[in-house]
Amino acid sequence: MSKPLKQIHLAAHFPGVNNTTVWSDPNAGSHIEFSSFVHFARTAERAKFDFLFLAEGLRLREQGGRIHDLDVVGRPDTFTVLAALAAVTEHLGLTGTINSTFNEPYEVARQFASLDHLSGGRSAWNVVTSWDAFTGENFRRGGFLPQQERYSRAKEFLATANELFDSWHGDEILADQETGVFLRDAKAGAFVHTGQHFDIHGRFNVPRSPQGRPVIFQAGDSEEGREFAASSADAIFSRHATLEAGQAFYTDVKKRLARYRRRPGHLLILPAATFTLADTDAEAEELAKVVRRQQVSGATAIKHLEFVWNRDLSAYDPDGPLPEIDPDLGDDHISQGRAQVRMYRDPLATAREWRELAAANNWSIRDLVIETGSRQNFVGSPETIARTINELVQADASDGFILVPHITPTGLDAFADQVVPLLQEQGVFRTEYEGPTLRHQLGLAHPDDVRDERAAS
């Protein structure tokens, strides 16, 4: 008997906190004006996507004290944007990246519970940590935490927030037509938490929201991040969008679930994926080359090289050869804790490999960064991209994809109009939304039902 087809999950990432956006394209619009967010969200909802994903950077991207073009310069507050989008959408999930290193559980729980009420049960939280010294300078605590302590704080942060979400129960409130909502149980909202990172007690002042808790996303790829996702997340936002890497990641994370008394369906694997779409595969391949050169300017290429060399390379020509000097292995890194440092654990070996590639292919610095950096995951005609996405999902390389267009806000339009109908025709993507909440779209159980299932097992 053949295996039933999996239903594909699709989401849309509003770009900007990355280097995928093509600023120079004449179709590029604002990353600040609300109309851009509205167009993007309504396109995603028209295509019946599960959710919109809004990343957040807590400081302008800089290196050596200078701002550069890897990020949007200025982005409105995530909660403000998502709350406003709740009023102009009906079914689309609203996912925001909120940092657990520089925030407090009470305020974050209150904001997400409020967003869940305002949206009718469509909120989701991408729980992230930060080891970025630049960002730490913006906050009272300052600095950054070692990796193990970051995840320790994140786990306790989420557990504490869940205690706050769960401090209200359905039978503890009644609605009065004249006076509004009032308490029937004096314990409603009461909480006490004492732990390594948080020692708080009081009363949570937002009643139980439609989803009980926001859907929880996690984006770490380290051993600690994978274990955190297996223990606590509803979905994991990964970077493994190819067949072999995707299958390995999928298998590894899913097999961790059993130790937390969770089933494979309790955690979705949703890699980020860029795409280049054209009428034919050949046209898409040519367009993808153009897009990559637009995404990686000369200045951007030098900044990427500095991540490995740990030196000021501003005097080098990005269209010239790689530096003959070796990387500086000192502890005082030029990017001061930037996440990219983790990608190159052996800078000397990376420099040797890159020099060999550049020599063999006659690549300049910019050529090398373009060819070794992230590439468009899906390139081709609508038929090719639809087929590729479906094959990857059916092969358990993922449960779906979070799509990152290179143009804002119209970059999702062609995918919605040309690729989604093909997936619907194949019977692997919805034609209507399944229910009112994001948990309905993702096929995730309500937290109360999961708790009852665990108690009965």
From TrEMBL:
GO terms for molecular function: monooxygenase activity. It holds the Pfam family Bac_luciferase. The keyword Nuclease does not apply. Residues 22-395 form the Luciferase-like domain. Its EC number is 1.14.-.-. Keywords: Flavoprotein, FMN, Monooxygenase, Oxidoreductase. Belongs to the NtaA/SnaA/DszA monooxygenase family. PANTHER family: ALKANESULFONATE MONOOXYGENASE-RELATED (PTHR30011), C2H2 FINGER DOMAIN TRANSCRIPTION FACTOR (EUROFUNG)-RELATED (PTHR30011:SF16). This is NtaA/DmoA family FMN-dependent monooxygenase. It comes from Streptomyces cinereospinus.
